[in-house]
Design a protein that fits this description.
Strand 1 and strand 2 form a beta hairpin. The protein has 3 domains: about 240 residues, no CATH class; about 90 residues, no CATH class; about 100 residues. About 65% of the residues lie in helices and about 15% in strands. About 0% of the residues have low confidence. It contains 11 helices and 5 strands, in the order H-H-H-H-H-E-E-E-E-E-H-H-H-H-H-H.
Length: about 475
Amino acid sequence: MFILWRYIIKEHIGPFLFGLSIITLVFLLNIIFRELGRILSRGLGITIIAEFFFLNLAWIIALAVPMAVLIATLMAFGRLSGDGEITAMKAGGVSVLNIMTPVFLASVIMAFFLVWFNNNVLPDANYRTKLLTADIFRKRPTLNIEPGVMYNDIDDYSILVQEIVEKSDTSYVKNIDIEDKSDPGTSTFIHAKRGKIFLDQMSGMLYLILFDGYMHELDLDKMEQYSTIDFPRQTVSISVPDMVLTRTEEGYRGDREKSSSMMLAEVNANKIDITDRRLRAGKLVRDYFLKYLPEDDRCATSQKRSTFISGKNANQNIYEFERIRSDNIRLLNQLKSELSSMKALDRENWRLLVEIHKKYSIPFACIVFILIGAPLGIMARRGSLAVAGGIAFAFFLLYWASLIGGEELADNQYITPFWAMWLANILCGAGGIYLIFHSIHEATFIHWDRLNDLIKIFLFRRKLT
């Protein structure tokens, strides 16, 4: 039996790795088409670009592994069934459940691995990805000076060159003109026959070393003060820190950058805050009624009320009325504020609980897809990628649509976070158990002959009418 189990597991390894590679490649290509152009325009090094894509592999793996499990199961069991090996195993006294046992146990191990991965690796990877993405898009594009085109991407400076030669990190230019507007009270114009430009990545300084030129400087407050300076060599340094990638080490963690334990602690803290606010709101109402309806002075209160109603001492009555009205408005605003805060905290808890359940429901899909993939592969009797991919794609659409729709409903508090994240697993798991039952009893999953007869009857009736 263990030899058979090893053989079945071995049949799944190749399709699993192949499916995982294809799905990962599809996700990476999507990121490349969406982000690579903007990333390359920032003038980043190959190590930063590689780090960006490597960090994105974390969430890709978390989603791709369950998909690859379904593709591998469909392909492996489809090939075994198409080659008659499933029939031979049954003839040897091995049941369908025994055939599925090794891959089922492997899927349980894979699910536990993904749970660990989603709580220990994925949050930090998402956090680092968010920080790196913010750093990248905060960085200015690299220096892109073109001959004969005015370059104005640096604040307070305009640069025009007639010829440029790029060599390594240095640009060699000829006939360069620079307009310096960094000083509001001075207008400076510089011309040089030749020069070189390079950016210091450590200090964020752009250096322009100019040769054989002159500089005109005009004081805008005192227009009569005008000076001209000829120079054989001049260095102009411009601070452009945004052109150097500055790495951020700390920042705010969103729900997808937190582990389940971190989010659960936040949920408990929010529940305590909600309880405190509920008690505070109750105390406000209780103090208000004790102020105007004291339990030990009902008679005096009734007498004051009758005096107020009778119209005696009108000025005092108006003052008392305004004070009571102000107290009512203040109480109402305080209660609205507390209720609004409680609703916001409760909505935040639902959103956090959705993410907590998601970290467990998606790994559990590995087990669910085994329950679906094994009987479907046996019934399909083909192990090709086209068949496996087509069936898997249909289930992916159903599964992910259920997750996305459930998350949206739970965020708006229409259904609980548990049902939002686990309903797809429950429905697909029930369907898988149904398919296994039919596979064990060798029942026909779809009666094609009956379906064909129904179609003929329907067409015949249409023809009669």
